[in-house]
Automatic annotation (TrEMBL), chains A, B, C, D:
GO terms for cellular component: cytoplasm. This is N-acetyl-gamma-glutamyl-phosphate reductase. Keywords: Amino-acid biosynthesis, Arginine biosynthesis, Cytoplasm, NADP, Oxidoreductase. GO terms for biological process: L-arginine biosynthetic process. It is found in: Cytoplasm. Belongs to the NAGSA dehydrogenase family. Type 1 subfamily. It comes from Salicibibacter cibi. The active site is at 149.
């Protein structure tokens, strides 16, 4: 399998390289960049010395379309929208890690993203790559819209409850916490070490663009789906997302019943671990493709509390992208992804 | 003002020393300990060299009752319950930083704390020391039950909404995040640096003992008060609490109306800052007695999101204790507490 | 005392505001900026809401020279060099926190700083503000060159050994570690949280511009002074410097003898604490103007190891600047600086 | 290859599990503990759910000696000394990660470790497992004393300079910095998050027990070897060691010459990367078995500055242990160890 990565200088891009290095079916990895072409990747990322010797190549859509089996697009917003038309004419399976094709309805995309939506034909063709729940569609797809980091943790956490009609869909509140790598490689005041360490922040309250992505998927799962409250926070750590989700219950009335529902839902899915005994910490999935879930039911308030944790750069980005590429290519879903979490 | 601190080796205790050193009316600070008597405090806390030369004295209730103007009790659970009876016979104003006297109803105390409640007569006498809202009662009190760190942030955040009957009291969800000093000085696996750094944790879901303290105060403010969902998280930082609170609105329908309500409520209170423009980060109150609040209203869900941040050791413990002692002694409320946040 | 701060939007500038707020002789603080004039300081630093209400004023050298008693210059390199000539004609005492006037020899300045040296007349007039060792000169000075953060920790640590001729001056090696605030407010890849957390870095090996500043002062203390090895490191914390210094001994042969030498040297200096028993951690001086020192002598190698810690923004910048302004104005050296370290 | 791990509940133990899971020749991993037998490992380390299902077995020396091909001893000090005699009679290759067999001279061991030395016959038989420099001996060994974390970084950094007789052996000063995992799993005041975050510490000055281990190896490489100064520091991060080493040069007089010497020395060694261009940060080897080295020569002082970084739990413990087991078993040195550093 010949693989191309477009936008390899971002954190999603180098995480793809880290993971693909362990993939048994990958024979070649090429990296492309529109902005830094001709430089060795090690000049941006010296930790790749002796690991990856490739030079950043300037974009050549035709080469991408014809020479590679899989093209991962991890470029900034808008780049995939421009490239995808031509790429779709070639042989490569396409996995887009940007948000360009996630939102089906252009007006919603434009309202939340504040930019023009991609060609609706392409977006229509793109399968939403929530691996555990769209497995069949993904395996037949030519292009996959890889989910956002927050939606991955949140949707995996909500799915069994929603699909079992166990919660009041108007009551869903999501309080999410992320490490700083979610904000990308570019230095900015919000993620400046001096002002981020020893600090807990909140941002984009009621206006984060992952909101419509979450709501769109929920509405495919339930006719009762409604607007959700989604609040992102920034935590002084590099990697990890924890989503704490609250909903009023309409069925079941004990934590154990709920745990059983979740265990049944994820039994066949190696990357989702419904925890045996106690809530997970983000560090317990660090560097791995796991999503760990646990929950509690509170009889006093009749509310369910669901907690879901992932490594935002793995299951929340590069790991799930490879999982999807595996499905698209008929490989084992877990190929190249069986990393044990780095702990501590 | 002669001051005694019982339990000076805990984080609350040394924070009292730090703050009282700037207090113009304090003439003497004595420190007492039941476990480490006769040692200089600097042998536990070398950062106090040249600052505080006192020796930890063994407990002498009579001396405490008769020699001091204010006694701060920052000892482990149960110690204050044992001491207070005798202390109340003396002249000292008493501020208890433990949870021994916060819960009025013994059965509720025992259910959540898992230990015997203190003498109901004393608890009945103890005024709940939420300085901004109980000012008058505090100023007449002989003994004050200083609020817990979480309840301080949460109740200051909820008060104007609750007292204005602006929210549905059955809808209150509190997602709170704290730094590790809230867990105290004793090393434990949960706060071991190796396993806490780069990790976001959740704990005591639906069973944290600050829950009844929050509900008790809410029920004094509103007849509609109901059980709340309160979820504490542990963040990789030493100091700081952020409480993110959600409630369905029953009146007002814009963020600005809500901000006006809050500004009016706290106009006369120098330690609560309703923020001008944007949500606060915990670092923005670091080391200070401020509680910073901001909020947003979401028309899509008709929900209010309130965020409140404090330094858990200052406004959440030692700072508010001194603020209460000031009120009890007729000093300026702000005396000894006018620290500017350390930033960054 | 009317005070002006030029360059108040940097970390040194706001630290001056934090400290000056506690200074009993300060009646007014004005802030000036060449780049962001007319904005309230709170738009950059919301933690100053209700604390500091001033508007950033555009630079007016004449006003600075005539209206203020003290002018603190904490602007970027080169600004002080431009302003000082005019300011010196006015009444204000000037404390420059930039490096513009620290190096007496222009060719050395130019070799290490890579920019043109300031007017030699002004540099000649500027007294090096290492408060503990230049007290007399500082108290008579019109303009003080406030020491760099590293040189402060290092020179206070080396002074007694050097002045007692106790070490071989050709053997001095300084391994220094700093928090990220030393790198300033501008976001940069090196201090991007995602790449700085969980990482220890080294930078400017053998070429840091604080090297000649250290050597210049050593050569005033000892005729044997020679080139030193100085290696700066960046540690994942916001505040704090630890300098670990090594030298071969030419006299004394026990740790205790050395400790006695140091205790004698700093007996009269309230901000330097020779530790009683054990080496200091940086957190033990956090937020305070202390410099804590301890040392050990190793008979196996005949080497002295001296460790010195400071808060880089206080004793390493704003605190020492105020200490110098106090000396220049005949106030108590400690005025406005008696903060207890924030611990933990 | 059947593998046993004694002391699997420590950080070294679980890191062995993480790495061995990727090792193609490992067919079985059993874990033993003297203190927590019969419990599933996941009750201590929930991140291993679905990854490692083994139960901690109580120690059975005979089983260890006869049933396994490799026994990794990662138990507390003294345990290996007790077990090794019996184990040596069995078939297993033994790699001891404790310090029990590193020091050849019992009196030196006892002076630095403050406990009785192991049986001299066994210690005599144990080969020091610095993989890159003792490859041949290791491949023939029955028992390997795996190097300490600090000595690994330090000796790999010093070796080429020492073996080329390029430095004055009386001038060697080692300033080393480690993350907290080096201090192990047991919670302690020194590594309590609240007091470790935002703090730089120094400990065991001139008395760390890795000192004689370093000196012993240096004296095998050079007749001029002498006592070294070795100073360990604790940095607020979980993983990583940076050793900054200083020595006066006796030959070569440019950084480039030195880099060439180092490149030649490590050309054939895949886990030591002499960096192309600039000093390494610890995060650049995070989670990997790499040791990255860079250096500078300063003509002003005629000193060489060598910097070496490792992940203390990988190349400094479990990774090098597996590397040694590979050599002992005739596998590829890199088997199971080709992880790309996790960055950021």
């Amino acid at each position: 399998m010949k693989v191309a990565i477009v936008g390899a200088t971002g954190y999603g891009g180098i995480e793809l390289i880290r993971l693909l290095r362990q993939h048994r079916h990958v024979t070649e990895i090429s990296v492309f960049s529109s902005t830094q072409a001709e430089a060795p990747l090690t000049s941006t990322y010296p930790h790749l010395q002796d690991v990856y010797k490739g030079i950043l190549q300037s974009m050549d859509t035709e080469e991408l379309a014809t020479e590679y089996d899989v093209v991962f697009l991890s470029a900034p917003p808008g780049v995939a929208a421009t490239l995808a038309g031509n790429l779709l004419e070639g042989k490569a399976a396409i996995v887009d890690l940007s948000g360009d094709f996630r939102i089906k309805e252009p007006s919603i995309y434009e309202a939340w993203y504040g930019r023009e939506a991609a060609d609706a034909t392409i977006t229509g063709q793109a399968v939403y790559g929530l691996s555990e729940w769209n497995q069949e569609q993904i395996s037949k797809a030519k292009i996959v819209a890889n989910p956002g980091c927050y939606p991955t943790a949140i949707l995996l956490g909500l799915a069994p409850a929603v699909k079992n009609n166990g919660i009041d869909m108007t009551s869903v509140i999501i309080d999410a916490k992320t490490g700083t790598t979610g904000a990308g490689k570019n230095p900015a005041p919000m993620t400046h070490f001096s002002e981020m360490n020893e600090s807990m922040k909140i941002y984009n309250v009621n206006e984060h663009k992952h909101t419509p992505e979450i709501e769109q998927q929920l509405s495919e799962w339930s006719e009762e789906a409604d607007a959700v409250t989604f609040t992102p926070h920034l935590v002084p750590m590099s990697r990890g997302i924890m989503a704490t989700m609250y909903a009023t219950c309409t069925s079941y009335s004990s934590a154990q019943e709920w745990i059983d529902v979740y265990k049944a839902a994820y039994e066949a899915h190696p990357f989702v671990r419904v925890r045996e005994d106690g809530f997970p910490a983000t560090k317990e999935v660090y560097g791995s493709n796991y999503c760990d879930i646990f929950l509690d039911y509170d009889a006093r308030t009749n509310r369910l509390t669901i907690v879901s944790v992932i490594d935002n750069l793995v299951k929340g980005a590069a790991g799930q992208a490879i999982q999807n590429a595996n499905l698209m290519n008929g490989f084992e879903e877990t190929e190249g992804l069986e990393f044990v979490p780095i702990y501590p």
